[in-house]
UniProtKB/TrEMBL annotation:
Superkingdom as given in the UniProt entry: Bacteria
Location of the HTH merR-type domain: 4-73
GO MF annotation list: DNA binding
Keyword terms of this UniProt record: DNA-binding, Transcription, Transcription regulation
Protein name per UniProt: MerR family DNA-binding protein
PROSITE patterns in the record: HTH_MERR_2 (PS50937)
Signal sequence annotation: none
Species for this entry: Streptomyces halobius
Origin organism lineage: Bacteria, Bacillati, Actinomycetota, Actinomycetes, Kitasatosporales
């Protein structure tokens, strides 16, 4: 017999929130839960495994669409490892770009700050070199 878990039990086992479970159900990442005679959502071990996978994938920064694709490939009986590697490579590229953008912003801020040395808080008010720009 398959063990049926309440949403509270399933969330504790998968280490996700109830809100996350509802979002994943609404987005089609998790099949709709069965219901008890009292109307409570019920989950099984397969649901907990799926929730755990989704949590891990989100922790790695995968987008919900990426996770949906990986789950669909897996459901089709095909090992999704190549797809997962491709998705992780894409995330690394996104992070590398974000780091480069942040480093460029940092350089700009430091250069602008150095130009601010020319600014003096005196009257009469003059235009600050930072506002005037290069």
């Amino acid at each position: 017999m398959i063990q049926q878990l309440t949403i509270g039990q399933a969330t504790r086992a998968a280490r996700v929130t109830r809100k996350a479970v509802r979002v994943y159900e609404a987005k089609g990442l998790l099949p709709p839960a069965g219901r008890s005679t009292a109307g409570y959502r019920l989950y099984d071990d397969t649901d907990v495994e799926r929730l755990t996978f989704i949590r891990r994938a989100r922790t790695l920064g995968l987008h919900l669409d990426d996770i949906r694709e990986v789950l669909a490939i897996h459901a089709g009986g095909i090992p999704p490892c190549v797809t997962v590697r491709d998705k992780l490579d894409a995330r690394v590229a996104e992070i590398d770009k974000a780091v480069a953008d942040l480093l460029a912003l940092r350089r700009t801020l430091v250069e602008t700050r150095h130009r601010a040395e020319e600014c003096v808080d005196e009257l009469p008010v003059t235009v600050c070199s930072i506002i005037e720009g290069p």
